[in-house]
UniProtKB/TrEMBL annotation:
This is Lipoprotein.
Length: 111
């Protein structure tokens, strides 16, 4: 009986810890798609892990009302060939009532 309890507890802990990682990856990929759409960038545009910074709002903590803040650094060139670096900030809210995983996060703020 103890072994069964330990096995179920282990599975629950692994499932909870991997869910947070999954949320971060989902928000990161969603932010990459949204920034391409919002800035009308070419479809082949790719971002490195260093150019996409993801944090959560510390006031909310864990739970259904977590706010994810994504800072995306976009590097480009102006007509004279000088490098232009712009940082865009996006806020995502996790929706508790979303049916599909792709609809789970909502862009609430873009600057």
């Amino acid at each position: 009986m103890k072994k069964l309890f330990f096995l179920i507890l282990t599975i629950a802990i692994v499932a909870c810890s991997s869910d947070t990682k999954s949320d971060h990856d989902t928000v990161r990929e969603l932010a990459k798609k949204d920034i391409i759409e919002k800035l009308d960038l070419p479809k082949g545009t790719e971002f490195s892990d260093e150019s996409v910074e993801l944090t959560t709002n510390p006031a909310d903590g864990d739970g259904p009302n977590v706010e994810y803040i994504v800072k995306v650094t976009v590097k480009s060139q102006d007509q004279s060939g000088s490098e232009v670096v712009k940082v865009h900030k996006m806020h995502y809210k996790k929706k508790a009532d979303a049916e599909a995983a792709k609809d789970q996060f909502e862009l609430t703020f873009f600057e």
